[in-house]
Amino acid sequence: MVFIGNFALALALLLAVYATGASVIGARRKLPALVESAAHAMWATAGMVAVAAAVLWSALLHNDFTVAYVAQHSSTTLPTFYKVTAFWGGQEGSLLFWTLLLTVFGAIVAWQNRRADPVLTPYVFMCLSLVSIFFLGMLNFVTSPFARTVPPPSEGRDLNPLLQNYWMAIHPPSLYTGYVSATVPFAFAVAALITCRLDDAWIRRTRRWALFSWFFLTLGNMFGARWAYEVLGWGGYWAWDPVENAAFMPWLAMTAYLHSVMIQERKDMLKVWNMALIGLAFALTLFGTFITRSGVISSVHSFTQSGLGPYFVSFLCAVVGLYTALVLYRLPQLRSEAELESMLSREAAFLFNNLVLVGIAFAVFWGTIFPILSEAVRGVKITVGPPFFNRVNAPLALALLFLMGVGPLIAWRRATWRNLTQSFSAPAALGIAAGVAALAAGIGQWYVLATISLAVFVVATIGAEFGRGMRARQRTLSESAPQALISLVAKNNRRYGGYIVHLGVVMAFVGIVASSFFKVEVKRSVKDGQSFSVGGYELVYRGISVKDTTHVEEVDAVVEVRKGGRTIALLKPARLFYKREQQPATKVALRQTPLADLYVVFAGLDEKTGMATFQAFLTPMVFWLWAGGLVMALGTVVAFWPDVREREAIARALERRTYALDAGRAVEPLGG
Amino acid sequence: MDAIKNTFLLALLCAALFAAVLASAPVQASPPKTSVEDVAQGLTCQCGCGLTVANCNHPNCSFSVPVREQIEQMIAKGFGKRDILAFFRQKYGEKILSAPDPHGFNLLAWLTPFIMLLAGAVALLLALRRWSRRTPSAPQTTVSPDHYEVRLRKQLESEVQRLL
């Protein structure tokens, strides 16, 4: 079996090399059959990587400890579900998983574009195949998932206990999908630069891929936060750890890109900026992988540290260097006669939104790499942790929230005072009123007050937009309110999908601020029958129960939750002991409501005194963070939905280009 | 009128950015009341959890638990946050602080994001001014046509046509 895996990976590498060569030669010598064969090679590459993946999964499921990866990341007692997820629980497996996604996405792109644009497409194939070559090269020559152990152990070392959680089953695949799918718009950008097809056709053709990537980056970040919340047991969900930052930065860059491409589509400006943003998003995905794998920055999430850092950093430098050179080479053609009627316009609001998003991405990047810089310059190790990131990003986040309210209602081209007062008077008044009400209610922190005001302001602007469209439909077509809402969203899905995403962002933001500012923490040691209070809850310790399996020993503490004199829940926080790894872990007990989460950790049991120690947190409104994530995902699905107008726009863009080519205004492809 | 609006907007943006920098300044003029939680957030746990002493997820951690106790004792003796952080810094080195001390080289950590942001804002404002100069001004009295309004109206008209 292992032989098949190795053979499949070697063949996949050869096929990727062929696809690269065939697409370039096919494009330059105008041989469509050769380009078509490159597409076929991409499908075959994906097939071969899928075979290799199947071999590794099979080895994991059959406890084949002759494979070093299986011996290191699985065991006979590991539940089957986690044997499946162990595929991405270690270095080699996660690289293979990455490559599987990359080649499958490449195959889909090859299928989608097999008859499209014979000039641009071959270079898209070339770029995707080149990236695949790097990853396949790593798997074949540097870190093989099929390396043998001689002699094979009778038992494996098991999967890291922290990874034995269902969120870990879906967090890495979501994040990887988001990371890897960013390669597609990047490949189109490279192809557009090489062929000098710099209009908005490549953006329109990759809009769904960009949204797809953003969707999974959003989910990946959310699932990762949820994993940290449930598994790490400190009552929080985000610690500004380098690996968390590495997942957050591409999300920021992609968010900026999704906004700025709207301006290029509409006004044919910001071409250089959009090229820079998609290049940045892709480079940040590589940077994230580098951070996760290099061990150069210590992280709580680096489960796969290895010596791959130099390879990744070399690839990253090569990508950034070549891409920058390409953009600079095409700079004269990328420059457009940008026009802007007024700084008070939606275009300007979008540009400031881009500035803030990129500003946050830079601040996160800077904070992440500063410890390396400090050590290199001063030879002193320092830590850049939550206080830095919170202080630097907090005002920027508020600015972003404000712009999110302004963007949807301010007019394109030029907003007049009349437009501004008409659109913003009511939302601004509501926002201020909410802030004043919160102040009157005793909230004293300026940041919380600003968040409340801005959140209400943004929700009011979104509500106004929905209301405007619905009223028009109700008046003209006599539709009921729900009918008008559904038709409005269905017929303008891109616009209203975006508003739904904004609503999700506001919900998440409110959840983050409330849970950060008003968290209550209590640590107590109690005997059976004794109680302690957290917030308005009384927690009564009711003894322990033990569950023992061959894999893990679980000691549950039974905690009765009482409020107003009556029992409202029975929680069972637990201490786990993973026998194979000889490692303890915590299982958090949660009582979640939209108002507050009661989060209980069973810290330990003193067997001599019978005292059980608990750490309990009452975290207000953290529910809204997760709900906001779901709403963001829902909004992305709405915006993603097929749109006839968009297909027409792509056709028009291609038509314009044909006209431009006919008129002899085209620039020759690079080196052509 | 346009020039007044643009100047007003520029001033507003600069004020907002300045306020943001002030609000997020690492050194507070009047230190807040010292609490164990607050001080513990300023220290990084050395047990390998990668979290702050306040957030360490090992309930019986051999580092964060005694450090928290020590912080409590120092607060009881009247030490302020700055003194306590300085004490731990001297004992364990700079790496124990969860955010760089805003002095010397470390000032770069705090200032660079805002300098870059301000540079970006200035570049963007200059670009916007250049682009807006290029564009002939539309008559002020007319509200610019909102593309979406037009589209919405057309959409409704076509639906009405279909119903008739």
Helices, strands, pairings?
The complex is a heterodimer of chains A (672) and B (164).
Chain A: H1 2-28, H2 32-61, H3 68-73, H4 80-85, H5 91-112, H6 121-142, H7 166-181, H8 183-195, H9 201-232, H10 242-267, H11 271-294, H12 309-329, H13 331-334, H14 346-378, H15 386-409, H16 417-440, H17 446-477, H18 481-491, H19 493-517, E1 520-526, E2 531-534, E3 537-548, E4 552-563, E5 566-571, E6 574-578, E7 583-587, E8 589-592, E9 596-606, E10 611-620, H20 623-640, H21 644-662
Chain B: H1 2-23, H2 36-41, H3 64-76, H4 81-92, H5 107-134, H6 147-163
Characterise this structure:
The complex is a heterodimer of chains A (672) and B (164). With 672 residues, chain A is of the alpha+beta class. The longest helix of chain A is centred in the middle third of the chain and has 33 residues. Chain A is built from 21 helices and ten strands. In chain A, the strands form two sheets. In chain A, strands 2, 3, 4, 5, 6 and 7 form a six-stranded antiparallel β-sheet that branches. Chain A has a four-stranded antiparallel β-sheet with strand order 1-10-9-8, with helices on one face. Among the domains of chain A are: 160 residues, no CATH class; 173 residues; 105 residues, no CATH class. Chain A is globular and about 80 Å long. The two termini of chain A are 46 Å apart. By secondary structure, chain B is an all-alpha fold. Chain B has one domain. Chain B is built from six helices and no strands. The radius of gyration of chain B is 27 Å and the shape is elongated. The relative contact order of chain B is 0.09. At the A-B interface, helix 14, helix 15, helix 17 and strand 9 of A face helix 1, helix 5 and helix 6 of B.
